[in-house]
Amino acid sequence: MALKLPEDANLRLRAALKQRFHRLRHQGDLIRHTSDSSAWTPSAVPTFKEYYGSVETLLRHGTSRQHFQYLFNVYAVSTPHGISRSELLALIQDHVNMAREDARLFERTYTWLKKHVPSATAGHSYDAIAELLEAHPNQLLDHVHVNLDRCLAQLEANNTVYCRLPDDLAILIEQDL
């Protein structure tokens, strides 16, 4: 099933991803949480057009696990060691889509996370969290799908907080649009 973005969402996505792309190129530590982060270099995605195409393809055709890996990196911003429990809960609330909606799913998930992720502020790696979610009684990892509006809101919030661009870099970004 192909994803057809409304024009306003497409423009918001391009703008949010533009800032994120330049942060990725200049702050490689943004992918530090993944198991293959040592293989990443700034030239891994040489142009914004390729990066945008990759994200758009992921949104259209990605699996639940691929969506989770991308969202993990979008949400894991408060600690250099991975995702915090509160960030993980926000990710789950925003992007887990269960076929049979349980009214208490997120309350139960929060209790379960408190039991299995004891520290609310410590970071946890992608591999550890993926393994944990696979063990969840509802197999949450298989129900992650990008909610574009919530993902855009998170990207925009992250860009506002973490992407204070110098004027010369802002000019380069505008040229790429």
SSE topology sketch:
Layout: H1 7-26, H2 48-61, H3 64-75, H4 85-95, H5 105-116, H6 126-135, H7 148-162, H8 167-176
What keyword list fits this structure?
8 helices; single chain; mainly alpha; 177 residues; globular; 0% strand
Describe the protein in words:
It contains eight helices and no strands. With 177 residues, the protein is mostly helical. It has one domain. It is globular and about 50 Å long. The two termini are 27 Å apart. The mean pLDDT is 79.
Uncertain stretches of 5 or more adjacent residues: none
Can you give the mean pLDDT?
79
**SSE topology string:** HHHHHHHH
Number of domains: 1
Q: What level of helicity do the residues show? A: 55-70%
Strand content: under 5%
| Major sheet details | none
Radius of gyration, whole Å: 16 Å
Backbone shape: globular
Count of DSSP-assigned helices: 8
Number of extended strands: 0
**Based on helices, strands and strand pairing, what is the structural class?**
mainly alpha
Span between N and C termini?
A: 27 Å
Overview in brief:
The protein has 177 residues and is mainly alpha-helical. The protein has helices at residues 7-26, 48-61, 64-75, 85-95, 105-116, 126-135, 148-162, 167-176. It is built from eight helices and no strands.
